[in-house]
Structure prediction request, 473 residues.
Amino acid sequence: MSKFDTIIRGGRVANASDTVVCDVGIRGGRIAALGEDLGDAGEMIDASGRLVLPGGIDSHVHLAQDSGPGIVMADDFESGTRAAAFGGNTLVMPFCMQQKGQSLRQAVKDYHAKAQGKCHVDVSFHLVISDPTPQVLGQELPALVGDGYTSIKVFMTYQDLALSDIELLEVFSTARETGALVMVHAENYDAIRFLTERLERAGKTAPKFHATSRPIPVEREATHRAISLAELVDVPIMIVHVSNGEAMEQIRWAQSRGLKVFGETCPQYLVLTEKDLDSLNMEGAKYVCSPPPRDEASQRACWLGLQTGVFQVFSSDHCPFRYEDAQGKLTPKARTSFRWVPNGIPGVETRLPILFSEGVVKGRLSLEQFVALTATNHAKMYGLHPKKGTIAVGADADIAIWDPERKVTITQSILHHGSDYTPYEGLEVTGWPVTTIVRGKTVVSDGRLAGDRPAGEYMARNRSPYAAPPDFP
Ligand code: URP
Ligand code: ZN
Ligand code: ZN
Prediction:
């Protein structure tokens, strides 16, 4: 009898540190051996000419999230994780969104109920704190962090979500005490309101004015303020979805001073620009997300942030709405002003091919940097490493097998998300994930879902080693 359930034979196995040609032996859902000619197993997967990579970890996705009256997100946990699996991901991290007045524990229960039995890849949750009451900060949050919800997102913008500076300080301070990692959405809410009202008074209400209402200084200022507030209480933070060089420079400046400030950018800031919002009629709504895509100089700055290590993680910020839908981008109110267009775009399935093609194939990133930015660093940053994010003996067998030469034109008809469009329509990429394996089970193969039911499981997480301030016990 073979020592292995499955052997992936003869592929180029790439980790964040190095790339070697070898076999991968899988037993009981974990990687049991790496070596030359591991022999035979019940299941043999020929990976010659292929890349064998750690499954993608997308640490910033929104699924089945309550999005306001009359608005419905286009992906539930089934369709969102299906799209993730087809895109070479083996784990995604959506948010449990606390509504104002709601208990955080209840929000967690609600999102578990939405996910239960539906996930094609593994799932782990961040918490969103919109109402930092003494009860939430004093009791619920410490207990939840202890239970494995070890990261929190806070917003500096959006009605009903934006926290004041004192609220941010209170969350930061509790995060420091509990060892949670804080993700910050850095845009100045008051500045956006001021600009939005001025634009609306001038009759400038088309989707393209979404970008005008949130220019770079709005993001730069909030990024700097978040960094300064975090410095005051000595807590590590992750600035998410950074869109431009000025915000990136704030993070680099903080890092150069020894502060534990981390950064994330996303595909929309590498391949889209503000011009995409300036399409005929309401088409620009397809690209409305926050922060908005900027210009070519901003794209270059985001590449530099990835290349030089200012950004540790590359996520999709998948936040899908349907376009031709009165509960999606085209709500009756959205037709009256950009202010009401639901914010967010789909991208969980296209994140990896876009970075592989634009980054690795075009020579901007090494293969090892790609693996770090799309899998390993997510696992490390959010307390899942070394179980996740690496192809190593003892790790979960979460693997994506890629055809590095496959040429694909991204188009809505080939994707598996619940949205009715992709913002990357027509983008030509080289390299595509062909097989996705979650804890040893093949989930996607030859363009089809494999297995008779969703194989994904919920993953509680350890505290992030990156969230520990220097003198944390
Ligand atoms: O526009 C965006 N990014 N929507 C998703 C919510 C968020 O801020 O991450
Ligand atoms: Zn955000
Ligand atoms: Zn987001």
